[in-house]
Amino acid sequence: MPDFLLIVDEDAVLEVMRLVGGEDAVNIVKFLMKNPSKSDEEIASALGMNVKDVRRILHKLIDYSLLTYDVAKDKDTGHRIFRWRVQQDQVLGYIKTQIRRMVERLKAKLEYEQSHQFYYCGTKGCRKYTFEEAVDKLFRCPVCGNMLNYYDNSKLIEALKQKLQVLEKSI
User: Fold this and answer.
1) Which one of 54, 86, 134, 166 has the minimum C-beta count within 10 Å?
2) Mind listing the pLDDT tens digit for each residue in 42-65?
3) What angle is formed at CA 22 by the lines to CA 62 and CA 44, rounded to 5 degrees?
4) DSSP 3-state helix, strand, coil percentages of the chain (rounded to 5)?
5) Which pTM value belongs to this model?
């Protein structure tokens, strides 16, 4: 397994949090890394945020198993209090899951590229068409009117194969 997946440091954790929950998630996670087992009210107060926004972000992060919590009862009110902690060890699993999803999408793209012939007019901004689509359009680009010519996608296919090889090795 490549080294970049063996080591999940604080910067990697924060970047994953940013991708999942935005900049506010980063601030919340930084706070929780220094102050574990804090309630959503304590987090909101310390960061000067609205408690509803904090809860929304916490729940988004827990949906990806990036946080965990313990539940306690307030002795005075009887309300449940959630105390939140960062699960840094789960970040690696999240990254691997995202890589698996990329692999699946790239495999589908590779299969599509390998199983079709494409035609393209050569005009920037115009798309390429499958053989069947080109026939329907009488080999004329519907956007610019130029002729649709055979498009060699072998370089794209090779690039997809190489990217897949790298990603599959990483998981």
Assistant:
1) 166
2) 999 999 999 999 999 999 999 988
3) 70
4) 55, 15, 25
5) 0.65
